[in-house]
Amino acid sequence: MGVSSPAMQQNYTIPASTAMSPPTVDPAADSPLIAGGKLKDRHIAMIALGGAIGAGLFVGSSAAIHDAGPAVFATYVVTGLMVVIVMRMLGEMLLFRPGIGTFVDCIRTAHGPGAGFLAGWLYWLFWVVTIGAEAIGGAIILNGWSGLPVWMLAPLLIVAVNIVNAVSVDLFGECEFWLSFIKVSCIIAFAALGAAALLHLVGPKISPLANIMAGNGPMPNGLAAVVATIPTVLFSMIGSEAATVAAAESENARENLGKVTRRIGLRLTLFCLVSVGVILCLVPWTSIVPGHSPFVTVMQALGIPGASMALQIVVFSAVLSCLNSSIYITSRTLYGLAEKGDAPDAFRHLSRHAVPQRAVLASSLIGLFVAFCSILSPGVIFAFFISATGAVILVVYGLIVSAHWAMRGEQPDDPVFTLPLGRGLNMLMLGGMAMVMLAMLIQPDQRGTVLSSIGSVAVLSLIYAMKRRTGQSSGRRTGA
To answer: TM segments (predicted)?
Structure first.
């Protein structure tokens, strides 16, 4: 959803196994993940793109530009390439096993129930903490407009978005469509404005070369600083894989799953590169202030009236979009875990509109608890939640890549596998993700996030081992 990096969330910067044989999958299956799912094609197209574009780009990019200088453009290229490849791998797996479902199902099929349990719960934990963080971000914006206290506004936001998700998937899809439309339209308009400025049609005369060479050149703080910004940029582009959850609940599930995985990564990367490229060309990178939207900086430099308020509205829509999608994702992930026996059976319950309302309510309540923790104990409990989930998404991405490696190994000559370098590409991707982890470990402010996230993986692995042992013991007693 394009969330801000863990460090930014903590500072309240406004968005910001045990193997088993693969299960039998019906190749003709083309039904929604949840019977009665009615997301339309236009919903999926906008959710897929807008869902991955959030405050991490509109605000979080300022920190990356400030730290790495113009060379941050290369960081966006490399990170975007990683996202494109991960999504293409997902697409190939879904073609290899038609009707399999979401990316968690791909992991479960390739690596067994233990990996599915781990991936599902890690993903749920990541986004349920995001619910609380985004609610606080939205409340801070509303506080500036209304003067009402943040502790009152954050719960109201969660309740409002909870109602949207609990009523019907159609309502969720429509709301998310228009929220995403605002974000996408903003980027397109920003790119058009940038092109006009570079052609000297609006604003003062711009010298892109002078802006890029400001300070100490395009790489003022060295290569290490560029590498260190990879986690920040990656967290701003996270969320593409969530589109597979929505696509699986659409009218044309299998077709939409294929489209989403083929196109979303490239489109997301293009939008980010165009936005950052325009920023770097139109203003000196030294004028970018961390935590302050570089989009506002550019529009103020061009003399666009009302730039600050316009971007506040866009950022607020981005926060609402992320909050809306987070509740949707967590509820469907929790429902999927319950379907596999990895979560309480109560979360399998569907309303007459085919909405897992108990899962929606449970995820919203946990998100509300996280939001209150950010108010009552920002430096201890909330900081722990952010640290314990901040890097788990990298583990999930690693499981996606390794699942593709396993499936490609079954039939390496299958024509659905079109990515180059064979399974060597998977090794390169896993190595790249390990480098991101290493880059986070090197940075003192992110080291705790990596270590705490590793702890989360260990705890969930232990819970699964205990669950499996309990299940085996119950089975032996029943057999006796």
So the answer is: 44-65, 71-90, 121-142, 148-169, 181-202, 222-247, 268-289, 309-330, 359-377, 383-403, 424-442, 448-466
